[in-house]
Design a protein that fits this description.
The complex is a heterodimer of chains A (484) and B (327). Chain A has 484 residues and is an all-alpha fold. Chain A is 67% helix and 0% strand. In chain A, 42% of the residues are buried. Chain B contains 16 helices and nine strands. In chain B, the strands form three sheets. In chain B, strands 6-5-7-8-9 form a five-stranded parallel beta sheet, sandwiched between helices. In chain B, strand 3 and strand 4 form a beta hairpin. The longest helix of chain B has 24 residues. The interface between A and B is medium-sized, with 25 and 27 residues. Chain B: This is SGNH/GDSL hydrolase family protein. Chain B: Keywords: Membrane, Transmembrane, Transmembrane helix.
């Protein structure tokens, strides 16, 4: 079930009313109902996916207990941690990466002159959101192993934690310490929280419908026909893709966080205006925060993080980014994309500037950013956008050819929308979007933080109107990150 | 909770109200003049209405229409007489032309190029050949006075039936309270136009599947059926071969149908080459109707045809008086 579908429009109020009016008094019933609603939500794609998520839930619930029981015997605890990892990564590997490994293996032998027939390639459906919930359940095992968390004995609450529908298919990837504890506690309805949720849903829908969906046909057209377009259009294509993927994924996260708020649950922030980052390190503190902190906590720090010598730290950074790239998809393009980010990050790290913007935003103490900040933001945006050529292209060859056309055959021609729409509409839209995001850059959880009720109401009206003006019923409304 | 629910309802209402105002002020909605079926069973628009037809979310195509006394979108009234030279242009939405200003229609473009000619545009969205031939038959007194009849045939969609039956059900549905509400609440009209209501329609209707089944039926059988339907219509409503010409696009028309026309001396004019030869787009951006360039080409094409016909077909005009538009 998509957030931007009619089914969800009917599903959400129904679940909301039953949750608060029918099952409110008994937390066990409320959590059972949450599981039921979440399984309906997830099974809407394919009921068979439910078996997987249930299996993952049972496994990690059981393994969590085992890790905890053996914490005094480090070897045994580690053994159970490995069981959890082997199961989750095995499941992920089978459903997401098996064909990639088979194809890469065949490709490697072909390049050496040996022809192998691809008989092992399997016709596997990738279960939606598998990368997200496997990472979430793994974090539970890790937290118990690192003694940050005591495992729950409440299987119902744990199942609700794994399957909580707002963030099930595309995050934020929650930690048990945050989400599970809220699910175990009795929730009470708070007006401010629920109204904040509605505002986030509205803002998320705006980003999805107006920014991501309206740019999608342009990006698809340019990337599909890059060999026929001049360099100016190729640059435009990848810049618009930057906005598209941001609108799509951050829009999803906002809707997820907003929806969770309606049920009295606070999810972690996933996007903190990454387009205003002043270097690549800051970008990764603002883009897909739940994933980057996951890698930081469960991979980078256990490997030694930055507490080891510089060489090992650089190695750790490279590993993190390559794994992060590979997490995104079973394709060499994503690994390359990750590698490129490692290359961008390492100089920032070596200069000791990787944490310097952790606690402040661009234009922290003034209305306007300084000229230096503008240059920093533009440079970071350019680097990140450039790397997205790999992220968006279907193969490495396409990525290199795309870049090659920009570098060797620079020419300008005005781009014509594939459906003939006036391109100026989109440029104006993006300018206003960037300006508005700049205005609200200090609080990603409150996109309408204006004191005047009239101003707020006008904003709601403008946003709804813009959604109507850019709505396209023929567009594929799925979210980009579902494929990961 | 009560505060939340009350505010939610209140804000929703206020935002819908604001949207209704904005949609009206910006004229984002399209107008669809009401339809009816007259005493002769002809489906048409209620006469005397003016308004604007809008295409696209953002007013990408904005055009004025004017329904004349005959119930069709046209800059002129239809008063055929023996003393004038009239051309009747009959067809569906392409001829009705709600996506063009009524004063810049195909008919107007033809009149500008031909002296002393009146073009009567009998266009109506949804007309198929059965509607068109029944129209000529029902208004035979007028059409007997008209010198040239050009029927626009969209082969793929216009030959689905071999006999005309007025669609009272459709008219009743369009006049129902639900549709009146849609037309009067401009936000609903706009939402319906841009497809926001499509998921709701799909949820409550499976008609789309039925249509798909029809589309996928055997193409050869369909060709035969279309031809039989055409023969049936000609038999039922008559076809004045001398002054009637079918305007078609051979790229979308079956060879067997064209062959039948040739073998039976049924005139047709094919604008496929005219469209193929142009480098500019002939259709609108936001829908598949002809744009101004497309309409210009069609008008030029018809003008050339009329010139040629006037020069070469004197005999036929003399015979025309003896041809009967009878059942």
């Amino acid at each position: 079930m998509l957030f931007n579908s009619l089914e969800f429009l009917l599903f959400l109020p129904l679940v909301f009313f039953l949750y608060w009016f029918v099952f409110k008094k008994n937390i066990l019933l409320q959590n059972l109902f949450l599981i039921f609603a979440s399984y309906i939500f997830y099974g809407w794609w394919d009921w068979r996916f439910l078996l997987l998520i249930f299996l993952s839930t049972v496994m990690d619930f059981f393994v969590g207990q085992k890790i905890y029981q053996n914490l005094n015997v480090k070897k045994k605890a580690r053994y159970w941690l490995w069981v959890s990892m082997a199961f989750n990564i095995g499941m992920l590997g089978f459903f997401k990466y098996s064909n990639f490994f088979v194809d890469s293996f065949i490709g490697m032998f072909s390049s050496l002159g040996y022809e192998i027939k691809s008989t092992w390639t399997l016709n596997i459906i990738l279960p939606v959101g598998i990368s997200f919930y496997t990472f979430q359940t793994m974090s539970y095992s890790f937290d118990i192993y690192y003694k940050k968390l005591t495992p729950t004995k409440n299987f119902i609450a744990f199942t609700a934690f794994v399957s909580f529908f707002p963030q099930l298919v595309a995050g934020p990837i929650e930690r048990a310490s945050n989400l599970l504890s809220q699910i175990m506690d009795k929730r009470s309805f708070k007006y401010e929280q629920a109204s904040g949720g509605i505002k986030l849903i509205l803002w998320g829908l705006f980003k999805k419908i107006v920014i991501a969906d309206s740019l999608a046909p342009i990006v698809d057209d340019i990337f599909a026909n890059y060999s026929t377009y001049p360099a100016s259009s190729l640059i435009l294509g990848v810049c618009l893709f930057s906005f598209q993927v941001y609108g799509d994924f951050s829009g999803y996260s906002d809707i997820a966080i907003g929806t969770a708020k309606l049920f009295g649950i606070e999810l972690m922030s996933n996007f903190k205006f990454p387009n205003f980052s002043r270097n690549v390190a800051e970008y990764w503190q603002r883009w897909h925060v739940s994933l980057s902190t996951w890698f930081r906590h469960y991979l980078y720090i256990p490997m030694g993080g930055s507490r080891v010598n510089k060489t090992k730290s650089v190695r750790n950074i490279i590993v993190i980014f390559l794994v992060s790239g590979f997490w995104h998809g079973a394709n060499w393009t994503f690994i390359f994309w990750g590698g490129l980010h490692a290359l961008f990050y390492i100089p920032v790290f070596l200069m000791g500037r990787n944490r310097m913007y952790a606690d402040n935003v661009v234009g922290e103490k003034s209305i306007f950013p300084t000229p230096i900040e503008i240059l920093q933001v533009l440079l970071t945006f350019m680097l990140v956008t450039f790397s997205r050529i790999f992220f968006r292209s279907p193969t490495l060859t396409d990525s290199f050819q795309y870049m090659n056309r920009i570098a060797t055959d620079f020419s300008y021609e005005p781009y014509v929308h594939p459906m003939g729409y006036r391109m100026a509409d989109f440029y104006i839209l993006l300018v206003f979007f960037v300006i508005y995001e700049y205005l609200i850059r200090k609080d990603e959880r409150n996109p309408f933080k204006f004191k005047s009720k009239v101003v707020r109401f006008l904003l709601y009206a403008v946003i709804v109107l813009t959604m109507l003006l850019f709505y396209d019923d023929e567009i594929n409304r799925s979210f980009i990150y579902f494929q990961f | 909770m009560n505060k939340f629910l009350i505010r939610m309802v209140g804000y929703t209402f206020l935002i819908l109200l604001a949207m209704e105002i904005l949609v009206r002020v910006l004229h984002l909605y399209t107008e669809d003049p009401p339809r009816f079926i007259d005493d002769l069973g002809v489906e048409k628009r209620v006469p005397g209405l003016n308004g604007y037809a809008v295409t696209g979310n953002r007013n990408q195509n904005f055009s004025e229409f004017k329904i004349n006394a005959a119930g069709f979108n046209s800059y002129r009234e239809f008063n055929p007489s023996k003393s004038k030279y009239e051309i009747a242009l009959i067809g569906d939405s392409f001829i009705e032309g709600f996506h063009q200003d009524y004063f810049n229609s195909i008919g107007k473009k033809i009149e500008k190029k031909l002296d002393s000619v009146e073009v009567y545009e009998y266009g109506y969205a949804g007309y198929d050949l059965a509607n068109q031939m029944h129209l000529i038959y029902a208004y035979k007194n007028e059409f007997n006075l008209i010198d040239e009849i050009i029927i626009y045939l969209n082969y793929e969609s216009d030959l689905g039936r071999g006999e005309y039956e007025p669609n009272f059900g459709r008219i009743a549905m369009l006049s129902s309270t639900v549709f009146k509400m849609r037309d009067n609440i401009k936000l609903l009209a706009y939402g319906s136009k841009i497809g926001i209501l499509e998921p709701i329609k799909k949820m409550f209707s499976n008609k789309g599947f039925e249509n798909n089944t029809n589309i996928h039926s055997n193409a050869l059988n369909l060709e035969k059926q279309y031809l039989e339907n055409f023969k049936s219509l000609a038999k039922l409503y008559g076809l004045d071969k001398c002054k009637t010409t079918i305007l078609l696009d051979s790229r979308k028309t079956s060879k067997s149908f064209l062959k039948y026309c040739e073998e039976n001396n049924i005139n047709y004019i094919d604008f496929a080459k005219k469209f193929e030869d142009t480098t500019k787009s002939v259709t609108l951006i936001y829908d598949r109707h002809w744009n101004n360039h497309g309409r210009k080409l069609i008008a030029e094409f018809i003008v050339d045809f009329i010139h040629n016909k006037k020069n070469t077909d004197e005999n036929c005009n003399q015979q025309a008086s003896s041809t009967q538009l009878t059942k």
